[in-house]
Every structure is written in structure tokens, then in C-alpha cells.
Amino acid sequence: MQVKTVKSVKAEQLLDEYKVGSSFFFASPSRTLSAEGIFATIERDGVHGEKTELIRRVKAALKQASQAGAAGNPLVVGAMPFDIQDSIHLFVPETVHWAGPLPFEQLQRERERSCLGEYEIAPVPAPKAYEYAVEQGLKEIASGSLEKIVLSRSLHLSTGGAIDVPRILRNLAGNNEKGYTFAVDVRHHRQDSQKTLLGASPELLVSRDGQQVTANPLAGSVPRSKDPEEDGRRAAALLASEKDRHEHAVVVEAVAQSLRPFCRTLTIPDEPSLVQTETMWHLSTVLNGELADPSVDSLTLALALHPTPAVCGTPTALAKKTIQELEPFHRGFFTGMVGWSDSQGNGEWIVTIRCAEAEARLIKLFAGAGIVAGSAPEKELAETSAKFRTMLQAMGLNDE
Questions:
Q1: Of the residues 19, 142, 173, 375, which has the maximum number of CB atoms within 10 A of its CB?
Q2: Cα separation of 80 and 99, whole Å?
Q3: What is the distance between the alpha carbons of residues 2 and 94, in angstroms, rounded to a whole number?
Q4: Is the pLDDT of residue 49 over 60?
């Protein structure tokens, strides 16, 4: 087998040629990546969640690709779960295509409204049960054992026909100019039925470009309004909210603490800023650093950060344990990370949110909310409902 890189293609062509089960697709605001075939798989057996062993195996696979005559710069691509003890999906593809950014305005105009026929929808857990879980989380916070916990819920949509993943992916891309659109096959074995993780994440976990490191944690959110004046009021209130600024500060400090050992310099803005998606306002902070050791690669940085308090909580170990007790489903790749890292150590890894898993006639949507002192269960429920809209609208559905 030979690994090759192709750059002379258009971004829209990569989106058009996406194939469920055989393509890895990843689009950022500045470039588009599509990968096909499998040269080497990063096996899970024997890793047992040990990050250093996982990184060693990735580097060995990239070296093997280079020795096999890879043209250009071989990559590892794929998805990591919320709990790295779970199954991972990382591989070195045979063919890599790079292009510039997607034509977002064109994709917006061409957006197709209906991607589902008849369907049934089931919330997991039910809304009242989710509010009860938030109440339990607040009790842990009041006791002093937790400072923050992120609790999530899921929507299961079953349909009469197969899920049209390429069309949903195209719709997601058309509404995500400032974020990251992705699709990756996450089935455990090639003989299993196809299972696709896809979404439109607004959150960069970390990127490395030469010596430069960037992280962009988001925490503190409020749903958008279709009324411009109300939308502006909500944005201003979020920026001024003591509760949301505290939630955001917890995440930023955790990210900074994880990056400092790797960086010669690290710049952190004094104040958060606002970023918007089609459905949400978020508090955002962009951290920029310069690596102290040029041998540190993007996957090493991503694993050092993951999971941040933006998707888990703090302290991390207790928050994760409480999540597993309170959430009635297994997160899997939701709140994990998706991205790529090359043989030179450069790469991008994003937080796997605003996402779904599609398998045959079932698609599972996921959304979570950060719980801190002052959180209200009904408002956290409303926040998750708003976050579901990213995927629901991509399927031509406007409401739960």
C-alpha cells in the first residue's frame, strides 16, 4: 500500500464526494480535509487508556507510512471518546485530500430542508428526569465536592428509511462558517453496520502549527433569539452574567493549567468575548502559546487537555464518575474529540459537540449543559434543547 496526499481539488468537491463508511471529512474555517482508505489502524488492545502508549503507537504508524513511501506528509485522523478507556477510532488513511475553506454562502443557498420522512422521537432521559439529574448535580456542588459538572441528554430519532448522512453533512456545513464540520465512521469492526459520527462543533480543543499552539474553550451559553433586539439583549446579558463568567473562568484556567507545562509563552485574554452559532451565544477565550519543546505534537496536547471542564466538570475524576451515575446513556464519542495530526506534529482537534451518531434507521443526537452554583434545572433543559437545534435544523426539523 502507498499513502498519498492530493491538494489540487476544490473544497466543495470533497464534500460532494463524501461517502458514508469510507470517508473521513473535516472542515475548519480555513481548510477542508477528506481522507479515504486505511493504511494502518491504531489498535486499542493493550493500550488500556495509557496516553503515552497511545501516542507512541500513533507515531509508529506515521513512521511506518513514511517508510512505505508516503507521498507528502502522512496523517492520523479519527475520533476519540469522552472516556479514553473506551474504544478509539484512529487510523492512517491511504489517500488525503486538502482544499481551502468550503463555499459557505453557496452551501447556505443550496440547503435542502427535508432529510427525514416519517420518524419517531424519544428523549433520553425524559425532560423531568434531566431536571432531576441537574438537581442532584447542584447538591454535589452545594456540598463542596464539585465546582462544576456537565450533564447531557440525548434524542433518539427512528425513521422509516435510511438516514441520509451526506445531505445532513452538507446542511451542517452550510451553517457553520466559523466552526468545524465533521463526519467519521466509528463502527468497531469493518463487518459491523455503518455508524457515522457527524456534527458541527463550534469549539476548538487545540491546534498546533509549527511552534504555535491555539486553544479556544467555550463555556457559558444562552440560546439565540430570532428577534434581533432580544438576541442582542441575550448576548449582552451573557457577557455580564456572573454565573456564566464563573463557569467560563473555571474552564479557561483548567485549559491554561494543562498547556503551561508545554509552552514557553502562553497568552490569555483578561476578558472573555462572545461567539455566535446559528442557535447559540457562547463565552469564548482564545489562548495562544509557543511550544517549549518542538517535539510535542498536537495529539499529545489534545490528550493533555481532554476532557476539559467544558464537557466534564471539575474536579475531573469526580465529575466524570458523577456523570456516569446520573446520565442514563453511554456518551461514547460525544464530548470526545475529532481531528487530525501529521508526521510533523501539526494538527487540529475539536470538541465533539453539536453532534449525532447515525446508524441504519436510527440517529442519536446529544447535547449538554454546564452546571455550576446558581444554575436552574429548567434553564439548563432549555439550553440543551437549543443546542439540539443544530442537528435538528440540518435534518429539516425545527423543534424537538
A1: 173
A2: 24
A3: 6
A4: no
pLDDT value for 48: 53
Residue 89, C-alpha cell as written in the block: 477510532
Measured between alpha carbons, how far is 172 from 111 in angstroms, rounded to an integer? 9
Give the active site residue among 140, 147, 203, 278: 203
C-alpha cell at 390: 443544530
pTM of this prediction exceeds 0.85: yes
Q: Which residue has the cell 501529521?
A: 342
What is residue 400's predicted lDDT score, i.e. its pLDDT?
45
331 in Cβ contact with 340 (< 8 Å): no
Q: Nearest to residue 81, comparing CAs of 347, 340, 366, 334?
A: 334
Helix residue ranges per DSSP H, the chain? 11-16, 51-67, 104-109, 127-143, 165-174, 228-240, 242-259, 298-305, 316-326, 377-394
Task: Please state, in angstroms and rounded to a whole number, the distance separating the CA atoms of residues 252 and 248.
Answer: 6
Exposed/middle/buried for residue 30 (C-beta within 10 Å: 0-12, 13-18, 19+): exposed
Work out whether strand 95-99 and strand 4-6 pair parallel, antiparallel, or are unpaired.
parallel
Q: How many CA atoms lie within 13 A of 71 on its CB side?
A: 10
How many whole angstroms separate alpha carbon 376 and alpha carbon 135? Answer: 8
pLDDT in tens, 228-239: 999 999 999 999
Amino acid found at 278: E
Task: State the Cα–Cα distance between residues 342 and 120, nearest whole angstrom.
Answer: 42
Q: What is the CATH number of domain 4-101+119-394?
A: 3.60.120.10
243 counts as catalytic:
no
DSSP per position, 137-203 = HHHHHHHTS-SEEEEEEEEEEEESS---HHHHHHHHHHT-TTSEEEEEE--SSTTSPPEEEEEEE--
Write down the catalytic residue from 140, 148, 348, 364.
148
Residue 8, amino acid: S
Q: How many helices (H) and strands (E) does the chain have?
A: 10, 23
Q: How far apart are CA 164 and CA 230, in angstroms?
A: 35
The span from the CA of 37 to the CA of 299, in Å, is: 21
Q: What is the pLDDT of the chain when averaged over all its residues?
A: 92
